[in-house]
Structures are given as structure tokens and as C-alpha cells.
Specification:
- It is found in: Cytoplasm.
- The protein is of the alpha/beta class.
- The protein folds into two domains: about 230 residues, FAD/NAD(P)-binding domain, CATH 3.50.50.60; about 110 residues, D-Amino Acid Oxidase, Chain A, domain 2.
- The protein is built from twelve helices and 16 strands.
- The N and C termini lie far apart (about 65 Å).
- Bound molecules: flavin-adenine dinucleotide.
- The site of flavin-adenine dinucleotide (FAD) has 29 residues, from helix 1, strand 3 and helix 10.
Length: about 375
């Protein structure tokens, strides 16, 4: 059977791919998003994101969704607190209310983008296993799915995150371990059920740091606390703990926090549900690729970086919006659109990736949290 032809095919319906799809469809350009997950509800999207004025918010303006976004922002969520292991506060910033980096629930942001797309744009449960060029003159590709089906496309966009199946078409780079493991937990209904931990967290983001170890977290819009214990350690350290055995894993991680303030240790000891371990990976800073007819990347597929500058989701959306604008400006010359998008993409993402790598070093520095507190003080308006 002849594969269905899609003029523009986006692989991956994360924040980056959906922003691109929204900008295209809002401008009358057809596209299809192939998404591996079976439905929008198949995975809890969880976690707060601060959406930066110059990147994520700019993308939402391009997508015509900034007004709706404002109604979903978590009031007070821009607050930030830095403490040491004893809970002594080194810096406490209230939400300035300037709307510079307002916080929104990731799931609500994804829903905003999904609801703005024609229903036929996103095809759920379509896991792409790979793609290959079938006409180097036109840049046409054949895209294969796990269920054996395939498509052809004139423009293939890998928006499929860290372990992109499209990236190998343009680059040999693979994500590498960035030196930090995260142990992730939630504390629900925190003010009522976990008042000491909720008071320590404050209204927004918390950094509790001590050299190689940190307790980082956010207060979520639903009143829960989302907490990450960050640990600078060998890549295989995670494998030394059986996280399926929640009680023992909790005791092990809590022991790592011996001598820390009880409310910081309590974020692990009193957590609801299992501890989710995750390694933080990154692509090389400055990852780029030669112009390749008919294919490009955006978001984490293009520039996976550690989360310590809070840039990844913002950049993914900006990439989507900027690439969308380039296609709208040059719908009959998609190669020109790809070239102009990539010309801005590479220096922009190299700068952000370097920022993220520098922030990782600051957050897990030997003198942490003092360097981070000094950096925030230096950046604060006079
Ligand atoms: C712990 C943590 C905290 C973070 N905090 C922040 C933060 O505060 N601020 C911030 O800006 N960023 C943050 N980030 C980074 C942010 O999550 C990512 O940069 C962002 O999600 C990238 O968006 P994306 O659309 O490129 O990729 P993704 O969000 O990864 O979306 C990719 C999509 O592609 C789909 N997919 C994958 N493979 C296939 C396939 N083979 N076929 C079809 N579909 C596929 C996936 O199901 C997914 O829906 C954080 C990351 C982590 C790990």
C-alpha cells in the first residue's frame, strides 16, 4: 500500500512540537503531529514551569495564546528561596508580580496548546521508529512507525525529545550523563498534611543546597509540593538503590540528609508515593548539524540540556514558534525556512546550554548555596 503523504510531519507532541503545529495551523498551513503516547491523558505531565518573557511567552504571543496563558498562571509562584542544610534562609524573594517568569502547570500549558489545534492535527499512539531519505533532490523522507505503517513527507521535524529517532538523520550526537541524579517525590495537600515542609518551601521555588547534594522543589498550583533531591554522583549510583522497594529507598535517601533541617528531610520521609529516580543528561553544548534537505530538529531533540537554568521548555516553544514563522514567511521554499530557522537556532541554544551547564556547577558547587545566593543578589534590581 502506498504510504500516506504528509507535506509537513512533526514527530512528537511535546511543548515544542505543539507550538509549531499551532503556529502553522493558525496560519492555514496543514501539518500532522505523530505522537507516541496513546492519548493526552496517558501520562501525568506534572511539574511547574516558569515561562520566560523573552522565550516561552514570546512563543505564546506568536501562537496567539498569551491571553489564555495569563489566566492559567499560578499567582505567587515566582517566589524563590535559597536555604542551607540547616534551613537558614540566605535569600528570600517574593513574587515580584512583574510577569517576567510566571509559573504554570506543565499539563495545563500542554492542554492549552492541544485545545488550540484542529482535532485531526495530532495522531495519538503513533510511535516513530525511524526515518530515511527517499529523494535527496527534494528532501522527501519515509517515516516508519512501530506498528509497521509508514508515511512520506516533504518536511520532517524531530520534536521527539531527548532520545529523538529523527536526530540520527542529521547528527551522530547522543545525550550524555551530566553528572547529576534526581530523586523525585510529591507531597500532596501540603499546607494541611505537611505544614512544616510547606512552610520551608514557601510560595514558589526552593533551593536547599549543600555541596554535592540539594533539595530543590516547587509549590504546585494544586497545593502539593514537587521535590527533587539532586545528587552529584557517578552515573551508576542510581542502580545501587532498589526504588521499587519504596520504604527502603526512602530510608536510604533520608539517611543522605542526616543533619539537615527536619522539614527538608521530611520532604523525603513524608513523601506520598514512590521515589522516582532519573539521570540528568545533556547533548554537547553547541550541538549543531549541517543543513540536511527536508529535515530538522527542535526542542530537546536539538539541544537537550540540564534543567538548572529552566530553559528547556521555554526554548522548545520558542523553536516551534520561530520555525513556524519561518515557514509561514516562506511556504513555497521550505529549505529556505529551515535554513533561516537553523541560523538563529544554533547560537541561541548554544548560549542557553552553556548557561544551564554553568548553573549546574553553581548549584552543586563546594560552597553551595553561597555562590547561588550571591548570583541572585547580583542579578536583583538595585
Ligand atoms: C526534572 C526536569 C525539570 C525540568 N524543569 C524545567 C523548567 O523548570 N523549565 C524549563 O523550561 N524546562 C524544564 N525542563 C526541561 C523541559 O522539560 C524540556 O526541555 C521540554 O519538555 C522539551 O520539550 P520538547 O517538546 O522538545 O520535548 P518533550 O517534552 O520531551 O516532548 C517530546 C514528545 O515526543 C514524544 N515522542 C518521543 N519519542 C517519540 C517517537 N519515537 N514517536 C512519536 N512521538 C515520540 C513524547 O511522547 C513527547 O510527547 C525540565 C526537565 C527535567 C527533566
Amino acid at each position: 500500500m502506498t504510504p500516506e503523504h504528509l507535506p509537513i510531519c512533526i514527530v512528537g507532541g511535546g511543548l515544542g512540537g505543539l507550538t509549531l503545529a499551532r503556529v502553522l495551523t493558525a496560519n492555514g498551513i496543514d501539518t500532522v503531529v505523530l505522537e507516541a503516547e496513546p492519548s493526552r491523558h496517558s501520562r501525568v505531565q506534572g511539574g511547574m514551569l516558569d515561562i520566560h518573557a523573552e522565550s516561552g511567552q514570546s512563543a505564546l504571543r506568536t501562537a496567539g495564546l498569551h491571553d489564555s496563558f495569563r489566566t492559567l498562571v499560578h499567582p505567587g509562584g515566582e517566589a524563590m528561596r535559597i536555604v542551607d542544610r540547616s534551613g537558614t534562609v540566605l535569600r528570600d524573594e517574593a513574587d515580584p508580580g512583574t510577569f517576567d517568569r510566571p509559573e504554570i502547570d506543565r499539563g495545563q500549558l500542554r492542554d492549552l496548546l492541544l485545545d488550540a489545534l484542529p482535532a485531526a492535527t495530532i495522531r495519538w499512539g503513533q510511535k516513530v521508529t525511524g526515518a530515511e531519505p527517499i529523494d535527496s533532490a527534494t528532501g522527501r523522507h519515509l517515516v516508519q512507525l512501530a506498528d509497521g505503517r509508514s508515511y512520506t513527507t516533504d518536511l520532517l521535524i524531530g520534536a521527539d525529545g531527548a532520545w529523538s529517532r529523527i536526530r540520527p538523520l542529521v547528527s551522530d550526537a547522543r545525550p550524555a550523563y551530566a553528572g547529576i541524579c534526581f530523586l523525585e517525590v510529591d507531597l500532596h495537600d501540603a499546607d494541611r498534611r505537611h505544614p512544616a515542609e510547606a512552610a520551608m518551601m514557601g510560595g514558589g521555588m526552593l533551593f536547599a543546597l549543600d555541596g554535592d547534594l540539594g533539595v530543590l522543589g516547587h509549590r504546585e498550583a494544586d497545593g502539593s509540593l514537587h521535590v527533587y533531591v539532586g545528587h552529584r554522583c557517578a552515573e551508576d549510583w542510581i542502580d545501587t538503590i532498589d526504588f521499587a522497594d519504596t520504604a527502603t529507598a526512602r530510608t536510604t535517601v533520608s539517611k543522605m540528609l542526616d543533619g539537615w533541617h527536619p522539614a527538608l528531610r521530611g520532604m523525603i520521609e513524608h513523601a506520598d508515593g514512590p521515589i522516582i529516580p532519573r539521570r540528568i543528561n545533556a547533548l554537547p553544548v553547541g550541538h549543531s548539524w549541517p543543513h540536511t534537505p527536508g529535515v530538522t530538529l527542535l526542542g530537546d531533540a536539538a539541544h537537550l540540556m540540564s534543567p538548572f537554568a529552566g530553559e528547556g521548555a521555554n526554548l522548545a516553544m520558542l523553536d516551534g514558534a520561530e520555525f513556524g514563522r519561518a515557514i509561514v514567511a516562506s511556504p513555497d521554499d521550505l529549505e529556505q525556512a529551515v535554513a533561516s530557522y537553523q541560523e538563529a537556532l544554533f547560537p541561541r541554544s548554544a548560549a542557553a546550554a552553556q548557561d544551564s551547564a554553568d548553573s549546574l556547577e553553581l548549584i552543586f558547587a563546594a560552597d553551595a548555596p553561597h555562590g547561588l545566593a550571591r548570583a541572585f543578589a547580583a542579578a536583583a534590581p538595585a
